[in-house]
Amino acid sequence: LFIDGQPAKPVITWGGQDVPLSLTQTDVSTVTPDPGPIVVQPLTAGWNNIAHLAPTSPLPSGFDYLPGNWTAAYAWDPLLPVAPGVNGAYRRVIKDPLAPAVASTWETASRYQGYWVDAQTTTNAATVNPDPPSGRIITFEPGWNNFTWTGESSAMKPALANIAGKYTIVLQHDNTTGEWATYAPNQPRPLNSLGGLLHLSVYWIYMNEPGSVIMN
Fold it and tell me: What is the pLDDT of residues 36-87, one digit of tens each?
């Protein structure tokens, strides 16, 4: 089955001539093709949520793929203590070389780390596709987590089957429009605007307890 020239997901097997092809209670859609050898992440003037796809690097020099007029970047650390028994805060890096050292608390960007960057104009961040290996494991901490999906593009429910019941919502920020798409596992399908996880795209997830996902 093809939709607008793209193969549908999931794959539907037809039994042959005169065999009914039933799609009752089956979600069928297309999947955005994976990025090519160069991954292009759009940026607009203001804050953008993107992935660090370059090798793990010291900052700010590790952001050499960003346009020259970025000003600051923030990465969410779910384990950063902010009060007794309370974790979760942003680490930041300020580009201005005249800024005091204490202004920057984010020293190293890890490959596949999601983060916010403040761009001054509409442009793109382009990096070589890192071709992540299948089977990468990501561990989510209680509360909010900002992550890059490195597995194959997949519908939400099967992709996050290992943490079913442990998360309440998944979000994705559209850097072009500034809007958020959402997926809540207990909501009716028409109320969910986020249908799945795309290869090398960035998301937020809220966890009620720790959990790990294998990204195949």
Answer: 999 999 999 999 999 999 999 999 999 999 999 999 999 999 999 999 999 9
CA 45-115-111 angle, to 5 degrees, is 125
| Residue linked to tokens 């290996």 | 133
Give the integer Cα–Cα distance in Å for 155 and 181. Answer: 14
Where are the chain's structural domains?
32-216
Instruction: Using the structure block, give the residue that is written with the tokens 């960035």.
Output: 202
Bond from prior residue into 60 cis (ω within 30 degrees of 0): yes
**Helix (H) or strand (E) run with residue 42 in it:** strand 38-43
CA distance 70 to 97: 13
Phi, psi (degrees; rounded to nearest 5) at 3:
-125, 120
CB 172 within 8 A of CB 107: no
How many other C-beta atoms can be found within 10 angstroms of the C-beta atom of residue 195?
15
On whether the CB atoms of residues 149 and 200 are closer than 8 A, the answer is: yes
CA distances for 46 relative to 96, 119, 177, 206, angstroms? 17, 5, 11, 24
